[in-house]
Amino acid sequence: MYAFLIPLLKIVVVMAGLFGAVPVLVYFERRIAAFIQDRLGPNRVGPMGLFQPLADAIKMIFKEDIVPDHVDRVLYVLAPVLAFVPPALAFAVIPFGHPIRLLGDRIDLAIAPAGMGVLFLLAVGSTSVYGIAFGGWASNNKFSLLGGLRSSAQMISYEIPLVLALVAVLMTAGTLDLGRIVAQQAEFHLGILPAWNLFHQPIAFLIFFIAAFAETNRLPFDLPECEPELIGGYHTEYSSMKFAMFMMGEYVAMISMSALLVTFFLGGWSFPGIDPTSTALLSGIASVVAFAAKVAAVLFVFMWVRWTLPRFRYDQLMNLGWKVLIPLALLNIMATGVVGVA
Amino acid sequence: MTKFKVNGKEYDAPAGTNLLQFCLDHQIYIPHNCYHPALTVAGNCRMCMVKGKGLDLRPGVMTSCTLSVREPGPKQEMLEIETEAPEVIKAREGVLEFLLINHPLDCPVCDQAGECYLQDYSFTYGKDRSRFVEPKNIRHTKDVGDHVKIWGNRCIVCTRCVRFCEEVVGTGELAVVERGDRNVVDNFPGLPMSNLMSSNTVDICPVGALLDKEFLYQARVWFMETAESVCPSCSVGCNTKVDTYQGAVKRFRPRENQAVNQWWMCDIGRYNHKFTAAPDRLGLPKRRGTTAAGAVEWTRCSLDGALGDVRTALDRVVHAEGGAAVAGLASAWMSNEELWLFKGLMADMIGARDLGLLTAPDGVRTTFKKGFVIESDRNPNRRGAAEILGRAAAERGLATVLDGIHAGRIKAALVIGGIPEWAPPPELVAALRKLAFLAVVDVADSPLAALAHLVIPGATWVEKDGTFTNAQGRVQRFTRALAPPGVAAAETELLQRLAAASAAGAPDATGAKVLSAQSVFGDLAARVAAFAGLNYHDIGTQGKLLAGATGAAAAAPAGAAASGG
Amino acid sequence: MDAAAPHDEPESPPAGEKPSLSEELYLPEILKGLATTFKHLIRPEKFTVEYPEKKKPIPQNFRGEHALKRDAQGRVKCVACFLCATACPSECIHITAGPTPPEWTDREKYPTKFEIDMLRCIYCGMCEEACPCDAIELTSKFYQVSETREEKYFGKDTLLRQPMKREYPDQG
């Protein structure tokens, strides 16, 4: 009877959690930025400034939505949507808790626990460049176009090390099913050290982590928007909610990327004390909390890095991607193969 | 010509040429206070020190104002001076320190600051502090004449003012009184300096001792804007500078023109500017109407509307009764260009037969000792009007017009006044009252304007560009120093727009291109014989004589008995 | 890099400062940086001054709104020399001078009007520098809000009423 209701419910809950997290992230980003710079940050709206995201949202909604005369209208309107749908789609296959049994039915805590989840992720992930490239093209503005072009080049360049890093992980896991990848990591070595891929594949982790910054256009790789050179980059000509959608896209992408990182390297929903074979509701909730906590920790690192490192120069960015990360990832695959055979 | 050397360079000048004046004329600046080219050399300020050598000069520093160019000696040795030698600088510094012993250095509150010789020299040669610890002498601050007040503390006793009153005016009211370091300029008891050239002493005073009471504290000189102009107060046409500050005339100063006014101007002309900022200046056209009770009621209207209405009304009279029913009266305070446009509009376009000239009443002709003259004709451009409108119109036109009005032949008239503070003669008022339509262009709400059916605001000479022809027949340019009040405009513009207004009276004259005074003058020069060969640019700052004029009209015999004051 | 390398080659490190291995690897240096920022993140004291509730002390030489000073007899010290108006780069000082009332025997010129257009003023303090009589001063009045533009056009009365930053012994 609820054969279709349960996936629907999962979609609603996950999307609500995802979009609900965006304003919270904006708030934390501003507070963390302030604290790192010995300031206070937004603390006026509501207790400790907690309602600041609400105020921001209201402001964004009520701002005049300007569409400049010279833009390519269809792409101009489409671009913000494209910027934030693909990262959200990634959540379709990410397991955010271990399966639970409710009212006699086994429920996977992932919207669509597909056997080839990794392939889906990679396919969807590579479309996210369209939003930014379209935004830059449709704005018909030299700064926007440069931002869009930079973004395309950057995302294509860093997708390769990202995927190559995953290849090594998949070689050890021997599966494309995200649920099984996580379940493998729920074991322990020597009884205390979690069997996270972080420890199996530290170099892959490092490469994935660095590429994740580039893929989400975050500092130190935020060259597509790069204010001093490009004003606002691809979103120079955007205002009001269209601009807000670009912002949301960036944060959703951050969450997705963190979730992937957690899933592939940090044991996903697993945590010492949570029995991966249990199907109890409480244990399931605990696993979701563990997953969320790990994602939050990774997100914190994203912000922490942003307010620590300066922006790379474009040539440095390309050097790092092509001359360092890709060879390193290839070597890592080779080493993994050699170790696996031996 | 005699050869001599200044700073090692050889020059030529006729023997007897004043060396200081020669240097000043050749861009070699020598500081000086008491020397003035119009006055006898006094040599008392000791500021114009130069180093002289050659000929029979005793080597050393000497005053250059007392040196003159001399023939070379038997061995062809030349007179030679150096103006910037170290000992010269040292001598000037010493002289300046003495001049400053009793000078209060109150430049911040002194009106002369900014155009003060002593201030400039203090900057160049002065010390940053005084070495004299003794208290400064306090000398009198008092009125020495109707317009001039003396601050004795600031006086450096150069005697320029004393020599001016003696030599140029011939009245000699001023003298140096007291002795030693207490000496100061004062007027003789019971003989205040009330001659008609008294305020020139303010101009020639190198420091802030003699100041103009009417300009006192009005503006700092460096804030003022200056336009070159011509005085309209009599037919001499003294060349002037008009100094304005924040859109108001603050003072007139004479401008050197050896052929007209040398360095001077009279007090009558100098203070004749109050009317430019008088409260009764017209800024908007106005139309006469009648209230229900029958009283006169004036309504303001737009300039375009007023000009269109004037043209319509004149055209209607011409249409009904012919051109002879319209007359035009212009004043001798109008520029050559305006008179030319006036004639073109009234005689050629409208067809008026009778044009007349309004003039301010004559004053007393006054001649001063050195030849400066105040003409009895108190109009700036009667000569130009006679050339442009024709002698007959200028002399008898007014009488003809008045007769025509009394005879009922003339029904409408356009009158251009612009004579400040002028009371029209009663016979003119009586005649103008009879007209069916009277349009008046005037600068103020004058008795003349009160007679009109339509009044259009004009501009005074400081508010427009143009030329006057003075009594000598010299055409002289004046330039715009201010914007006219409200929508008032130069008569050249008003007349052109009147001409451009269609016969139907549609007030679309704004679209028409309005020619500048320069262009109008070009047309005038091409069509009027007396102005042939002149062009606006060549007139420049010193004026040009009309064809056939000798320039003799104002040249009074030098040394004529002074009758000023 | 040899000496003939183009001078704008971005990679060339400054001479004599060859980066060490850990610097070349980036990561250790990045971790050091992260440690620094984390220290600031948890540092309790912040530099922010929460303005309307707390105010920073205004330095003695702060250049705020102008004041015209009075002499020992309570008369305006200004002698209307216009030097402030001359020095003013934004041309916001408008003075009208006049002769002093007859009972002021020691002075002959004073400002009948002294107006400063505070909206044009850039608070550079040149007027204060230029004043030969020490008659104008930029006070430390910092909070300068008005509801209309007219209120910011200060006349002589307003300027004479301003609170003084510091009192000087009268210098005559």
What keywords describe this structure?
heterotrimer, B: 565 residues, alpha+beta, five-stranded mixed β-sheet, 25 strands, elongated, disordered C terminus, C: 172 residues, Alpha-Beta Plaits, three-stranded antiparallel β-sheet, disordered N terminus
Element layout with pairings:
The complex is a heterotrimer of chains A (342), B (565) and C (172).
Chain A (H helix, E strand, L loop, with lengths): L4 H32 L15 H11 L10 H18 L9 E3 L2 E3 L9 H9 L2 H11 L3 H32 L4 H8 L2 E2 L3 E2 L2 H4 L1 H14 L11 H4 L9 H26 L15 H26 L7 H28 L1
Chain B lengths: L1 E5 L2 E5 L5 H7 L23 E5 L6 E4 L15 E4 L3 H14 L17 H9 L15 E3 L4 E4 L8 H10 L4 E4 L6 E4 L12 H5 L5 E3 L12 E6 L8 E7 L2 E7 L12 H4 L15 E5 L5 E5 L2 H19 L4 E6 L4 H15 L3 E5 L7 E2 L5 E2 L7 H8 L1 H16 L5 E5 L9 H8 L3 E6 L4 H4 L3 E4 L8 E4 L4 E5 L12 H10 L16 H11 L8 H4 L4 E2 L20
Parallel strand pairs in B: 1-5, 16-17, 16-20, 20-21, 21-22
Antiparallel strand pairs in B: 1-2, 3-4, 3-5, 6-7, 7-10, 8-9, 11-12, 12-13, 14-15, 14-22, 18-19, 23-24, 24-25
Helix pairs in contact in B: 2-3, 7-13, 8-9, 8-13, 8-14, 9-10
Chain C lengths: L20 H4 L2 H16 L23 E3 L14 H5 L5 E7 L9 E9 L8 H5 L5 E3 L14 E2 L1 H6 L11
Antiparallel strand pairs in C: 1-4, 2-3, 3-5
Task: Describe the 3D structure.
The complex is a heterotrimer of chains A (342), B (565) and C (172). Chain A is mostly helical and 342 residues long. Chain A has helices at residues 5-36, 52-62, 73-90, 117-125, 128-138, 142-173, 178-185, 197-200, 202-215, 227-230, 240-265, 281-306, 314-341; strands at residues 100-102, 105-107, 188-189, 193-194. Chain A contains 13 helices and 4 strands. In chain A, the strands form 2 sheets. A two-stranded antiparallel ribbon of chain A has the order 1-2. A two-stranded antiparallel sheet of chain A has the order 3-4. In chain A, helix 1 packs across helix 11 (240-265), helix 5 (128-138) runs antiparallel to helix 6 and helix 9 (202-215) packs antiparallel against helix 13. The longest helix of chain A has 32 residues, at 5-36. The mean pLDDT of chain A is 83. Chain B has 565 residues and is an alpha+beta fold. Chain B is 25% helix and 20% strand. Chain B contains 15 helices and 25 strands. Chain B has a 7-stranded mixed β-sheet with strand order 15-14-22-21-20-16-17. In chain B, strands 2-1-5-3-4 form a 5-stranded mixed β-sheet, covered by helices on one side. The longest helix of chain B has 19 residues, at 303-321. Chain B is elongated and about 90 Å long. Chain C is elongated, with a radius of gyration of 28 Å. Chain C has a 3-stranded antiparallel β-sheet. In chain C, strands 1-4 form a two-stranded antiparallel ribbon. Chain C has 5 helices and 5 strands; from the N terminus they run H-H-E-H-E-E-H-E-E-H. The A-C interface holds A 32, 34-40, 206, 304-305, 307-309, 313, 315 and C 10, 27, 30, 33-34, 36-38, 40-43, 45-48, 50.
